[in-house]
Structures are given as C-alpha cells and as structure tokens.
Amino acid sequence: MKVLLIVVILLILYLLAIMPRMFGRPSADRLLKQNLYAHRGLHDNRTTAPENSMAAFKKAVDAGYGIELDVQLSKDGVPVIFHDFTLARVARYEDECIPEDAVRNEDGSIGVAGKVIDYTYEELQQFHLLDSDEKIPKFEDFLRMVDGKVPLIIELKIELFDTTVCPVVDNMLRNYKGVYCIESFNPLGLWWYRRNHKEVFRGQLSEEFFREPETLWHTPLYYLLAFLIFNFLTKPDFVAYNHKYAGNLSRMICHGLYRNTAAAWTIKSQEELDNNRGRFEIFIFEGFIPA
Asked: What is the dihedral of CA 128, 285, 167, 190, to 10 degrees?
C-alpha cells in the first residue's frame, strides 16, 4: 500500500512539473495561420542565401513562409542573428585577412575564431557568411525588412545563466506590429518572459539530448530538460521538439492531455512532414519546399 501511495504521489508531482501554461494562455491562432516556418530562413548554405542571412529571410518572405531565426548579443549589446555561439562553422574571413588563430573546420574550411559575443557589431561586419557576400544581420534590420509580412519564431540564444538578450530583444519587439513568438532551449529565457512580459507566446525547445553523442548531454540536467521537468517554472505555451523523438512521454502528455501547441523541428523532407502532421501543429523545415 505504501509503495502504491508513493507511486501515485510521484506521478502527480511529475504531471505538475511538466504542466505548461493552462490559464491566461495567449491564442496560437495567428501563428497557426501559416504553420510552415523556414528554418533560419529559406536558406541553402551552398548558395548566396545561407542560413540566417538577409537573403534567406527575403526568400522566405517572398514565398510567404513563416521564419524561424536565432538571436544573440554582440560584445557591445547589439542583437544579431546567428545560430551557434561560436563563429567558426558559418563565419568566414576575407581571403586576405585570415589571422593565425583562424579555425580549420572538419570540412577543411577556415572559420572565424571565437564567439559572437567576443566581437562588437562593427567587428562582426568584417566577416561574411560561408561562400556568400552576406553579413551577420542586425535583428533591428531584419524586423524592418519583414515588417509583419510573415509570422516569426524567434529563438533566444542563452548561454548558461546570462539572460541579457531577453530584455534587449523584448524592448525591440514591443514596438513590432507583426506576429511573433519566442522560444529557447534555456528555461531561464522563458522564465524571464513569464516574469516580465507574460503576454508573449513562449515556447520550450527540447529534444532527447541523451540520445546524442555529446558527453555533456548525458547528465541529469539534460534528462530533466529532455522530459520538460522545468515547465512548472517556465509555463510554456508551446513545446518545440525534435520530430525524431516525437514519442517522448512528456511531450505527448503536454500535447495530448494539456492541449499544448506542438512545434516540430527540423523537418527535412516532404515525407517527414507528412508523417508528423498528426503529431504537431507547427513545422520548422529546411532543405525542401513543402507541398
């Protein structure tokens, strides 16, 4: 009898821990009018419109797709659009300006050393994105270009405990007239919005980290993140999950029992899109044009 009681108590605590926002939840209707979102813009890293470039964003706007993008701060506090914390994978030096500390990537390309936050915005403009002439965009310029034409999913890049990007981005978005939501892998970003701007539709990004090869992700913290245990603090309005792990128990409970909006990332083929239509309402895609 005691064992059964303990099991029941633990089950109740688990269900409370993963419970998303249930009351006062903003409507998802405007985000769902266009439920296909181009991942980092309608990009192709082998062309003149690489990921998170103004060219890729313009292509998405022209095609009528929503846009998913990543925002973090430069050294001087300017919100810029770039996915990785480190620059090497995507940012390139001009050929005549390659320094000794340049990073050689696995594919043999030479990437920029350091992190985004190590450089001021003006210094970042010295680099270009992959083999294109595109520069790292300023978030303000991106908002001006989109101008509410398509909805946005804005991922806040938050390393460890530094949520400085949240108030800076939020201040800009308060004057933006278009449809948008925010999301982050880091629960502290959602917690900041819950405390400071709860009207914004907010989403928890996650996946089953422990299935990936990185040793860091095989720790208790990442198991808690994978199973959405911090929802009791962040109260997300939607959960964006790696579609490969759509069967994650916590994700399914949030979607099925709690009727939480579900977003899938990253869909890379029409087949993957078709196979996930009953499991998610929002689809973040790349590498193909959805039918």
From this structure: -140
